[in-house]
Amino acid sequence: MKYFEIDPVPSFPRPCVRVWDAHHNGLLSGLLLALIFWYSPAGCLAQAGPGNQVSQASPPRKSSLDAMREKRARANPTYSTAIQQNRDPHEFLLEKEAALNPPGPIQHRLLAYAAKAALEAGEKEKARSYANEALAGAAEMAAFYKGLKYTAPRRFGGIPAADYYGNFVLGRLALLDGDIRSAERYLIASGKADGEGDAVLSSYGPNLSLALEVLKHGDDQSREAVLQFLDEIKVFWNSKPSYYDQWKAQIVAGEMPNFEAVGPNLYN
Asked: Where do the domains of the chain lie?
């Protein structure tokens, strides 16, 4: 039988695996022994004796977390909340549309959620219509609050979610249309939402897939737009732990930030 001895040497670029036949050791057939030791890199590569087979392990695998992210991205390229929840996007959209009737006082927020669901179901024009209705309704409600002398008229009554996701959906649609400059403007507009008054935006945080896609498809101006966006949402989303500085440093260095470091913020 064969058993493996794995040398996890920190200074060595990858694990080294020794394999040798252990029949002559009198081990019972079928018994697998795994012995883990620390060796120097030189010892790792040295032959331990006649008949030993020493081999360099295959290149290091991606971490399970990175592998999971890549698998999820392949399975869910539209960042669909429905797919993330193992649901059908069209049924998810029907559910959001059903919530629109009868109209209620937070209709603008429900319209924003319906717009996002329509986007993820591939219903582009329906998504655009719902998003514009959401923003118009939010503006009307904000004007009402302003008339009542509210000091922060866009912080209440479902307005933050409508402001954020209305612009978010229009930005994602702009990307699908190949209009990166409009996508940047919608991204920045979404970040200006007064999310402090929204329990979800201020705790779990907003969906960041528009920011990621702007980075993927954009240029230096796009990176500046995403940096501005991060400064904006930091006002209302105090993520714990905070990754803002790390994300910004990665963007400045031309790298893609890990927007899932805090949670599923590409799919929520």
From this structure: 2-56, 64-252
- Give first-to-last CA distance, the chain, whole Å: 50
Q: Tell the residue number behind the tokens 């909340």, with chain if given.
A: 81
Contact of 237 with 202, CB cutoff 8 Å: yes
Residue 211 tokens, joined: 């920011």
Bond preceding residue 257 cis, omega within 30 of 0: no
What is the structure's pLDDT at 82?
92
How much is the pLDDT for 71? 72
Q: What is the pLDDT of residues 126-180, one digit of tens each?
A: 999 999 999 999 999 999 999 999 999 999 999 999 999 999 999 999 999 999 9
The DSSP result for 48-64, as a single string, is -STT-EEEEPPSPPPPH
Angstrom distance (rounded) from CA 84 to CA 157: 28
For residue 212, give both structure tokens. 């990621």
Q: For the chain, list the strands marked E by DSSP.
A: 2-7, 16-21, 34-36, 53-56
Phi/psi of residue 38, nearest 5 degrees: -105, 130
